[in-house]
Amino acid sequence: MSGLVRKISNLRVGTKGKVPARPISPAASEIKINEKFIPVREKMEAENISQAAISAFESTFNSLVAGETGIIPEVTISPAGGLLTVEDDIAPNITQNPSLLSETVVLKLNGGLGTGMGLDFAKSLLPVKGDDTFLDLTAKQVVKMRKDFGTNVKFMLMNSFSTSSDTLEFFRKKYPEIADEKGLELMQNKVPKLDRETFVPATCESDPSNEWCPPGHGDL
């Protein structure tokens, strides 16, 4: 919070001389940040977003208001040493045990729209190999794994409010055997978009859904 603390210049009161400068205390700065978050909290609570998700977003919000960017300069990152390699360190020690697949979940992160590419649907629905989309390839991999190992490996998608309907409709049409499975979808939370100058929740009267965005894979 030190970035928020501002020093008050010396003041002269009447003829009694100078009043010593007093910086705003960290506690006072904290109060100001908390006050800024009030409309954000109220908006999230109105959408029945969990308190855990609200608290997580509040922490990020406080960092934003304090001027933090979340950027890690590359010069501060050191290469990792002593990493294991699949070929030399891992593969020789692996013994296949298909029974473990019954305790395994294949979880695909699927919460993003292709807005950066001018799309308004889940980017996983883009064709990438012939007529197959990313989701086609994923579904085929799951189906083949189940067939090869004779085990119904659990499959889940971590969707967002932006991708849920498109994705579930895709599976209903092309892979109904997967679409009918219980617990196919793990839904991300959502967080409000903010005005970059005032940090108040953004509004879009023509389409209120544009006032929200997925919190990203960190929500996992």
UniProtKB/TrEMBL annotation:
<dbReference type="InterPro" id="IPR002618">
    <property type="entry name" value="UDPGP_fam"/>
</dbReference>
<dbReference type="GO" id="GO:0003983">
    <property type="term" value="F:UTP:glucose-1-phosphate uridylyltransferase activity"/>
</dbReference>
<dbReference type="InterPro" id="IPR016267">
    <property type="entry name" value="UDPGP_trans"/>
</dbReference>
<dbReference type="Pfam" id="PF01704">
    <property type="entry name" value="UDPGP"/>
</dbReference>
<dbReference type="InterPro" id="IPR029044">
    <property type="entry name" value="Nucleotide-diphossugar_trans"/>
</dbReference>
<keyword id="KW-0548">Nucleotidyltransferase</keyword>
<keyword id="KW-0808">Transferase</keyword>
<protein>
    <recommendedName>
        <fullName>UTP--glucose-1-phosphate uridylyltransferase</fullName>
        <ecNumber>2.7.7.9</ecNumber>
    </recommendedName>
</protein>
<dbReference type="GO" id="GO:0006011">
    <property type="term" value="P:UDP-alpha-D-glucose metabolic process"/>
</dbReference>
<comment type="similarity">
    <text>Belongs to the UDPGP type 1 family.</text>
</comment>
